[in-house]
Each structure stands twice: as C-alpha cells, then as structure tokens.
Amino acid sequence: MRRTSTDRLSQAAIVVAIAAVVALIAAQTSANLRSRGIASGYGYLGRASGFEIAPGPVSYSSRDTYARALVAGVVNTLRVALPGMAIASALGLVLGIARLSRVAVVAGAARLYIEVFRNIPLLLQLLFWYSLLQSLPPPHNRAVGFRGATASPEYAALLIGLSSCTAAYIAEIVRGGILAVERGQWDAAASLRLSRLQTLRFVILPQAATVIVPPTTSQFLNLTKNSSLAVAIGYPDLMSITNTTLNQTGQAIEAIALMMAIYLALSGVIAWTMHRWPRPSYAA
Fold first, then answer.
1. Position 148 pLDDT exceeds 80
2. Which of 38, 88, 234, 243 is the most interior residue, by most CB within 10 Å?
3. Residues near 48 by Cβ (< 8 Å), separated by ≥ 6?
4. Are 99 and 110 in contact (CB under 8 A)?
C-alpha cells in the first residue's frame, strides 16, 4: 500500500515537472516573439488569406480566411485518404491471396508487385505517377461530382501512389494472417467439400481478421500521414496549405502546432473507428 502511494506521488511529480517545463518553454517562446515583433496567437485565422487553391469540394477564393483555407486542406486530405484506404484494402486483399496461389505465375506476379512497391521510396512513386499523368492528353471532362471539383493530375497521382504502395504492405499482412490460421481448418473445410474460394471466404479470412486488422490500421494511419507528401506535386492538402500559411503570416509555431493537432485528431478517429469495426467471427 505504501509503495502504491509512493508510485502515485512519483508519477504526479513527473507530470508537474513536465507541465512546468512546457510552461517555461511557452513563456520564453512568447517573449522571444514579442521582442522580434512577431505576432502570436491564432488571430490570423480570421484574416483573408490572399492566395488561391485549386478547385475542390470546398468552395474557396483568395478573399476567404486562412481558417477556410485550412478546412479546404483537411477536406482535400480526407478526399485522398478515405478512397485510398478502400482501394488499398481491396487491392491488398487480392494481392495477399494471390501471393499464396498454387499457380506459380500468379504468385510470382503478386510477389513482384509487392517487392517493387515496397522497395521504391513513396515520394519517388508519387513523382513517377505525376509525371506519367502529366504526359497524358487531358480528358474532355474531369468532373468527379464533388460540386464541380476536378480529378486533377495531382489528385490522381497522389491517390494512385498512396493506394498502390499501401496495398503492397497490406498484401503481406493478409498473407501473414492467412498463414496464421491452422492448417487443420483447410482440411476441415475440404472434408466438407468447400471450394478454395469458399474456404477463404467463410473459414480462413474470418479467423485471420483478428491478425490482419491491427497492422492494417497502422497502414491506414501511415497512408493518411503520407498524404503530406502531396506538397511535392502541388496538391493542396493540409500540409501544402499550412506551408503557404506560415510563409505568409510568419506564425510558424501556431500553424505547425495546429497542423500537428489535426493530424493527431485524424489518426485518433481512424484508430478508434478500426478498433470499433465489427470483427467477423467464426464458430468452429
């Protein structure tokens, strides 16, 4: 009992010490900013931004505020991340199953895809897709139904790059999850005269899901955070708009802190959603 009380006091002391250090850093930073004549706080969010953003789901003009520009950046990030997760999941599932195929050509092709996309830097992949799409003739109509938004080469390159790369990692997760299921489950399904596809769908994958879902959640988080590489190809995501904002306002600390908080919130929502996602069950 005495030891428990001591532990709690020690933990409380550590928390107080950390809070004190943070407060001192904040006070010193505020004093340094004042001495240099640099404004602090988030009042800049209410001012007109003065820069344009490529058309997207959120209507925006240079007369709108920095806050609205930030909202546009968040929506543009989600516009890539959410469909990217869906595409990566579907493609990764197919590749993971193909990797275990008894047909050598199918298994070899899946392995080649996985090795290529896992071993080339994601930024280089994005630049490749962007250059490829830029060299293609422009379509007559790129409207995709987001209130006049267009599927620009930047958006398409980012979506293809993120989903195709993440799919390679999910494929290995799926393969590992399937291999984690006992071989006896295959034999039992075969004794019931289930086809290989039926066995995968009704027996193996439901059991493998408990192994597959947690690391797949990490890949979803990586995909969302890796969307920040969009700044390299000119897609106006959260990172790109924050970068423009801090360059114009000079309030780098506030802008970066706000961006970090948004990414943290997005990651928290994704992790919570995946944790709450209903797991398929299988009764032996």
1. no
2. 88
3. 62, 63, 64, 65
4. yes
**How many percent of the chain have pLDDT more than 70?**
88
Q: What is the rounded distance in angstroms from the CA atom of residue 19 to the CA atom of residue 98?
A: 52
Cβ-contact 269, 78 below 8 angstroms: no
Environment class of 225 (CB within 10 Å of its CB; exposed 0-12, middle 13-18, buried 19+)? middle
Query: With 60 as the cut, is the pLDDT of residue 236 above it?
Result: yes
Q: How confident is the model at residue 149 (pLDDT cuts 50, 70, 90)?
A: very low
Task: Say if CB 238 and CB 259 are below 8 A apart.
Answer: yes
Q: In a 10 Å sphere around its CB, with 0-12 CB exposed, 13-18 middle and 19+ buried, how is residue 248 labelled?
A: middle
* Distances in whole angstroms, Cα of residue 72 to Cα of each of 53, 205, 217, 239, 282: 9, 38, 25, 11, 43
